[in-house]
Design goal:
By secondary structure, the chain is mainly α. Helices cover about 80% and strands about 0% of the residues. The protein is globular, with a radius of gyration of 21 Å.
């Protein structure tokens, strides 16, 4: 039996088990739960992030620009309007009093992801409530850190690159090249975030290499689905006509639902491959 036949059988075995798990683990229902928690966590997370970057050479608009390429247009307008409104109301003193409540709220989405991944690996949460909740808070901080780094790199990277390319007399080439670098950098950052989630979140001892398949799927899948959904909403889906002023919220919920679905399927992919290689209760 040649290696190509083995690869096809391996792929079919993984895919077959994956489809069976989607129904058994209530993946579509869990995605709805994640969408709910993502919506509740969105503004506390963004406001806390904006408060932190106030001490850095960044702006609230820079953070919103980071999200804009992936979010549906109407949903992005809703996010921008409300975040900037709250910032103006608070006069820059965001979350100074309720910081613990804010972090607690912002970690709700990650806490739901932890539970979804535990179901994917079919393990119970043996960690105490404080440890489990602490893990979701730590992952929240980790995501904030990664996002800040991803925002700072373009700022300083562009300055350094512009200087070097101007010295070499290649300033026009740099403009084109930099756009490609920025796109690639954003993709790498997203992949790092997903890899961290798949490695740390489940109550399962994993190798870092066992987190890559789901992370790659989630990265490509989320970017593609986000762009397709954004295109659909912009050109075909007139939610405002159906839902009125709630249209933007409905769009965000659907986008979060698709995001949750992609993330959970990525966790299921990792779990199926893990069970296949360990040959324990592979079903």
């Amino acid at each position: 039996m040649d290696s190509q036949t083995i690869d096809i059988k391996y792929f079919i075995a993984i895919l077959t088990r994956l489809f069976k798990r989607l129904n058994r683990h209530e993946v579509f229902g869990l995605s709805g739960e994640l969408a709910y928690f993502f919506l509740l966590s969105l503004f506390p997370f963004l406001l806390f992030l904006i408060t932190l970057v106030g001490y850095l050479p960044l702006s609230a608009e820079g953070i919103l620009d980071f999200i804009e390429p992936y979010a549906p247009e109407q949903g992005m307008a809703f996010i921008e309007e409300n975040v900037l409104y709250i910032i103006n109301q608070e006069n820059g003193q965001l979350l100074s009093i309720g910081i613990l409540v804010t972090i607690w709220s912002a970690s709700n989405g990650l806490n739901a992801i932890i539970r979804a991944f535990n179901r994917a690996y079919e393990v119970k949460e043996s960690r105490s409530y404080l440890v489990s909740r602490g893990m979701s808070i730590i992952l929240t901080f980790a995501m904030i850190f990664v996002i800040i780094i991803s925002l700072l790199l373009p700022v300083f990277g562009k300055q350094i690159g512009s200087f070097l390319f101007s010295v070499l007399g290649l300033s026009e080439i740099f403009v084109v090249l930099w756009e490609a670098i920025r796109w690639l950098l954003s993709t790498v950052i997203i992949c790092i975030v997903f890899t961290g989630l798949y490695f740390f979140a489940p109550n399962k001892k994993l190798k870092l290499s066992e987190s890559y398949p789901g992370a790659l799927f989630a990265t490509v899948g989320w970017i593609v689905v986000s762009y397709l959904f954004s295109y659909y909403v912009s050109n075909f889906g007139n939610y405002s006509a159906t839902y009125g002023s709630l249209g933007a919220v409905i769009i965000l919920l659907i986008w979060f639902y698709l995001t949750g679905l992609i993330i959970i399927i990525g966790g299921e992919i990792n779990a199926v491959i893990f069970k296949y290689h360990h040959r324990k209760s592979f079903h």
